[in-house]
Write a structure and sequence with these properties.
alpha/beta, C8orf32 fold, Translation Initiation Factor IF3, 5-stranded mixed β-sheet, 14 helices, 11 strands, elongated
């Protein structure tokens, strides 16, 4: 845990004692900048018949294959591309190109797809042409970054993730580590003339971004760490804004890494909050989801979205590790014993344990300074005794 805290210390963005005291005594005393800092799509529309289009056309027989092709073109930051599909698939020249684009932007669990691409689009146009048995669909897309930018971002994000070394951390610890890293390493962009500030590339490589860049980088790193995450688009004080939701223990939690970064990033005022307390810091700066660019962007305030992403009412509580409870879920059982055995096996091979210091202390139930099979055996004995109604403290 110290590793990513040190990132914040090096960034020089921790709150001063004076400001911290102000925040504790008067939570609304310090206003967070709520600027028009979400670029999203700045234009969209149809390609007219008079516009020249030089892209060669691929042929696909179903929607899924066409969507996969669109996704590959978007990931490569291709400016224009086209393909043909059977007429019976393109049932509506207005909706079908957008439906296929939305299918290409579906969540896959890959940090460089889904919302990462969705918020990389600066603008797009589309068009259709009829043939005897097929319909040709054309796209012309502009982005906030180039393929070269994205290649550089891939390398830098990979380096950051390796430096974070999330192996052995619990889900909560991974979320906190990634969040604090992004909050501490990125500076808020005052000048938006450079379009990279709207991207994860700007945030990771240049260290400067607006909310869209912060959110896109957080999305990328969370998903790369195996933590499901989404980007939410909306308003705050009448201005465009983006933030994130993240999955933890079956529920989703709200977070605004941009605003925490501007507040110093150390206390996490907007970290893993619920619907009832996300905007507790300042009642004047509420997060309001909006539905724009219909079809290719979700309706974040719809019942369908809420059912797919059930958000907790209250903020997440940090796990507490007690003797024998190695995963911090409040229960001592066979899972804890399995974690201990796995950690012991890894440490035997690599020489280092994947457990955090707090977990190691909870795992060492024999109190001999070593986490090994004896601890796992003692935990299993405790679990068996507790299951049989024996409350004897085997860890004493």
């Amino acid at each position: 845990m110290k590793k990513y805290r040190n990132i914040l210390m090096r960034s020089g963005k921790l709150l001063s004692v004076f400001i911290s005291a102000m925040l504790i005594s008067a939570p609304s005393a310090l206003s967070v900048k709520a600027a028009n800092d979400a670029g999203i799509c700045t234009f969209y529309g149809k390609i007219s018949a008079s516009e020249s289009f030089s892209a060669s056309r691929r042929r696909f027989s179903d929607r899924e294959s066409a969507a996969e092709y669109i996704r590959s073109r978007l990931k490569d930051r291709t400016y224009e591309f086209a393909f043909t599909i059977p007429k019976d698939i393109c049932t509506d020249h207005e909706k079908t190109p957008l439906e296929l684009l939305a299918l290409a932007l579906a969540e896959t669990g890959n940090g460089s797809e889904g919302d990462y691409i969705r918020y990389a689009l600066k603008g797009y146009k589309y068009g259709c042409s009829e043939y005897q048995s097929e319909t040709a669909i054309y796209y012309r897309v502009t982005y906030y970054t180039s393929k070269q930018d994205e290649d550089e971002a891939d390398r830098e994000i990979s380096r950051i993730m390796q430096q974070l070394d999330l192996n052995g951390m619990t889900g909560y610890e991974k979320i906190r580590a990634v969040y604090d890293c992004v909050s501490g390493m990125v500076n808020y962009a005052k000048n938006t003339d450079d379009l990279s500030v709207f991207s994860a590339y700007g945030a990771a490589v240049k260290g400067t971004a607006v909310c869209q860049g912060y959110s896109q980088l957080l999305y990328r790193m969370m998903n790369d760490a195996g933590i499901p995450c989404r980007i939410i688009s909306g308003l705050s004080k009448g201005n465009r804004h983006t933030w994130n939701i993240v999955s933890y223990n079956g529920l989703w939690y709200l977070m605004d890494v941009t605003w925490d970064s501007q507040l110093g990033g150390s206390d996490g005022f907007y970290f893993m909050r619920g619907t009832s307390d996300f905007d507790d810091f300042s009642k004047e700066e509420k997060h309001i989801p909006i539905y724009e660019y219909k079809i290719i962007f979700p309706d974040y305030d719809s019942e369908d979205f809420k059912a797919a992403y059930p958000i907790s009412e209250k903020k997440a509580e940090a796990p507490v590790y007690t003797s024998g409870d190695v995963n911090g879920n409040g229960i001592i059982d066979g899972i804890d014993a399995s974690i201990v055995l796995t950690a012991y096996s890894i440490a035997s091979v690599k020489g280092t344990s994947p457990l955090t210091s707090a977990q190691s202390e909870a795992a060492d139930v024999t109190k001999d300074g070593v986490v090994d099979g004896k601890d796992a055996s003692r935990i299993l004995s405790y679990y068996a005794a507790a299951s049989a109604g024996n409350s004897k403290n085997l860890f004493a």
